[in-house]
Write the structure tokens for this entry.
Amino acid sequence: GAGVSQSPSNKVTEKGKDVELRCDPISGHTALYWYRQSLGQGLEFLIYFQGNSAPDKSGLPSDRFSAERTGGSVSTLTIQRTQQEDSAVYLCASSSPDVTYNEQFFGPGTRLTVL
Amino acid sequence: SQQGEEDPQALSIQEGENATMNCSYKTSINNLQWYRQNSGRGLVHLILIRSNEREKHSGRLRVTLDTSKKSSSLLITASRAADTASYFCATVRTRSGNTGKLIFGQGTTLQVKP
């Protein structure tokens, strides 16, 4: 594809339900990031995948959050037992392997609303 | 907070004027990047400046970096209504474990009036 795609674009769920957010990175980009943007916390790093290496999960806010990346491409971010404070825009980004000095390409985001 | 500071938080100017946004950060960095965001959705990369660089230009954009003061500025010259957006600085820390993860500032909302 031409860019990073994310689905769904909007998700409304009830408190306590589980949600899955999907990210398709740019073909050939081995690095994949999830970020979260909320009014109170701004833009925050959540998790990073690079090839077959162990992911950097240091930004995940609680054990209700998990993510996987299958086949080194598509990634899914799962939030279990959602809470109202999980409401935010979840952004995915991908980058070529030289992550230190390369720009990240962002998807349009998934706006999650927890009622 | 892990985030840096940006000022001003909001800026309103007339088309044709220059816009300057400032960013400060807290730790040593590999590089600093500026991103633009329209309508609260995806971010678009504008420019990257490495820690050993002091100034960089790209079209109407000029970025400076002062590592001694841990600060950067983004100048947009001859602004256009289409430049209306939120602008974020983001740093890649020296000790990021080579992940390239971005630490974002709080952003500046720029409005350019026609």
Summary: Chain A touches chain B through 28 residues (CB under 8 Å). The longest strand of chain A covers residues 42-50. The two ends of chain A are 33 Å apart (CA to CA).
